[in-house]
Amino acid sequence: MNRRTLGYSFLLILVALSSTQVSAQTAVSIAELKNYELGLQQPEVADMVPGAPLLATYQPMTQKHLVIANPFENAHVQFAVTDGTRVNLGQRIATITGPSVEHFFHRLETVKAQYDVAQQQHKSKYSLYQRNALSADDWQNFLDQYLRLSDQMHEIKILLSRFHQLADDSAELKAPIDGVWQSDADDMRIGYVIDRSEIRLAVQAPNELASSVHHISVQGERFTIDYREQSTRNGFTTLWSSPLTESTFTLYQRMSVVPLRNIANAFKVPGSAVSSLNGEPVVFSVDKQTIHPIPVSVSAVEGEDYYVAASTSLDNPIVTHSVAALKGIIDSREEAQQ
């Protein structure tokens, strides 16, 4: 063993002896506090520690919305719901009135009649083609027309599932799915329905905090963080909560939420249990007949309780009363030794 190794080993032994001396100096016998009420209490393990409030917005996570095209020209749209309102399948969203409504439904009937005729012709023309009584070009031309009509009928079925004619010049738009309604200023679209599963809380968390936030609390409810965006902006990361399918929030509403973090050896203790020694926060743990100070860091305050992260697991009861007297005994010892 060389001289450098010997020196390092001596330093470790010295540190260990110093730690033992400090522990012995700060340990207090319960007998010294026999005239005091200690209020022993078992610390509560904190699975989540609340932090300072963060700003969140109730909004869609993606742009995968069900767009409602406007098939009417110069028609008046009277909305029955406001933007950001929850709608259920089949619920009336708007009433549309104008001459173009009658023209629209008449055109749908015409296309439907053409498709019915084409369906009847399909079997007979195919039979003629099989017997070489119909040329390949004529059969192909018929198929092209038939497929175009089929595509139009598919679109018509979608439109008829959304728009229902009330009178010659009026119709109503019904919600095609459960979701949240949002109108559109573009004349080509009436609006769109956002699937409720896409609407979440977008939380702006400081970069140094983002990785440790696993849940958020808002109005007494807890929600899981489902996704963290990889990119950051101005020192903040966007965290997305789990879907709020039953929320009463309005679309794009802003609010404060409480981040909940996972912290090792975190406990919830009465504020009266936290004291300080040499400027560092501690709690006093009772092991049999001896009281030991345990260094902690205060992570959050909630009413009269503190959330602390301890240097070791707090398995034993802690002192919640007469903490000032206990601190006074230890401070007096240290002053006497100086």
TrEMBL record:
Q: Which domain of life is it from?
A: Bacteria
Per UniProt, which keywords does this protein have?
Answer: Signal, Transport
Gene Ontology cellular component?
Answer: cell envelope
Q: Which InterPro entries match?
A: MFP_Cation_Efflux
The signal sequence is 1-24
Q: What biological process terms from GO does the record include?
A: copper ion export; plasma membrane copper ion transport
Q: Does the keyword Transport apply?
A: yes
Entry keyword Ribonucleoprotein: no
Q: What is this protein called?
A: Membrane fusion-like protein
Species: Idiomarina baltica
